[in-house]
Task: inverse folding
């Protein structure tokens, strides 16, 4: 499963969360869908690596300067803080990576998943979309128009596709074992792909209007425009409209089923065009979603970070959060948030 989210910088500046300490009255609301939850501050206590709280239902440790806190029975870790406008989040078993749009020097930054000090991997970049595979990070450069690649250890970034071929303002990026896919603007909106090792790009599909998001699986490419949700083979053939939901900012795919959120519902759409609302909330579903083989992770506007089973039968509250970007590894869910005053944080909690 490969998924991609495309969010605008404007949206990042429109949502702020004021977090206040609940005192960790860990009442275990995670499995009670109608329980009310107020904002919390994961930074107000737990300045040591371990949290000794008998009401926590799980171990709660991290490595300083990251901070851990027991919140409603769950361990919530602030991996990194005081990062200006953290965006475009990806994760693996060892690190969490993001684009830090600082006013002085924008950079790609990483922090260990177990906590510790953040480190800059590449500075002076302006990332519009970020993704990864086992060994590398890939991103689209908003100004130069390049599609870039860098080893996760922090090697010198190099273009997979330079500006002359990537075209103006590329955005939206996904990778599989052989190719990188992105949204290009040549005066006409197209979705392109190129070999991971570099080479001439191939136009796959042309869209009549702005493409908001793309996603891929082992056989198909998916994208959304103002007109609807579409699919095609990975070579661009057999284009089909599979739903007409209007703009969607984030897609996730599992077993040839596309999952996405809009308004106060989460939907599943199959390749044959059949759609089903698998979850309904009393508040708006935020744009970004992330998927594993069993669940979709999303944030609603209360603010609550949630996990919903792909069949829609269970919905759990994981943490009080308005997650702008969400990423997963095998054990944890990670997200970005913006606190009062524009302080950016990278957060984590066990799945």
Result:
């Amino acid at each position: 499963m490969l998924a991609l989210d495309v969010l605008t910088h404007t949206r990042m500046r429109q949502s702020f969360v004021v977090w206040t300490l609940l005192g960790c009255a860990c009442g275990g609301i995670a499995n009670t869908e109608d329980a009310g939850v107020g904002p919390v501050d994961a930074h107000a206590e737990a300045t040591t690596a371990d949290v000794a709280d008998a009401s926590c239902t799980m171990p709660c440790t991290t490595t300083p300067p990251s901070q851990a806190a027991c919140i409603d029975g769950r361990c919530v870790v602030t991996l990194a803080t005081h990062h200006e406008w953290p965006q475009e989040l990806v994760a693996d078993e060892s690190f969490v990576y993001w684009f830090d749009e600082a006013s002085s020097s924008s950079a790609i930054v990483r922090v260990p998943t177990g906590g510790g000090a953040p480190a800059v991997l590449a500075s002076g970049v302006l990332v519009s979309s970020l993704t990864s595979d086992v060994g590398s990070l890939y991103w689209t450069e908003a100004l130069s128009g390049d599609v870039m690649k860098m080893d996760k250890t922090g090697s010198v970034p190099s273009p997979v596709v330079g500006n002359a071929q990537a075209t103006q303002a590329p955005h939206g990026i996904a990778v599989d074992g052989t190719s990188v896919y992105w949204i290009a603007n040549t005066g006409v909106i197209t979705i392109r792909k190129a070999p991971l090792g570099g080479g001439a790009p191939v136009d796959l599909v042309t869209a009549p209007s702005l493409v908001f998001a793309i996603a891929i699986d082992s056989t198909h490419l998916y994208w959304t425009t103002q007109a609807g949700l579409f699919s095609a083979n990975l070579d661009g053939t057999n284009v089909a409209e599979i739903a007409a939901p209007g703009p969607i900012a984030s897609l996730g795919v599992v077993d040839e089923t596309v999952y996405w959120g809009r308004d106060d519902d989460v939907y599943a759409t199959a390749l044959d065009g059949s759609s089903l609302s698998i979850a309904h909330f009393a508040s708006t579903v935020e744009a970004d979603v992330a998927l594993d083989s069993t669940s979709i992770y999303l944030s609603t506007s209360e603010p609550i970070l949630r996990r919903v089973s792909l069949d829609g039968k269970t919905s759990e509250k994981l943490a009080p959060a308005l997650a702008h970007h969400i990423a997963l590894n095998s054990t944890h869910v990670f997200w970005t948030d913006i606190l009062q005053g524009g302080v950016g944080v990278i957060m984590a909690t066990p799945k």
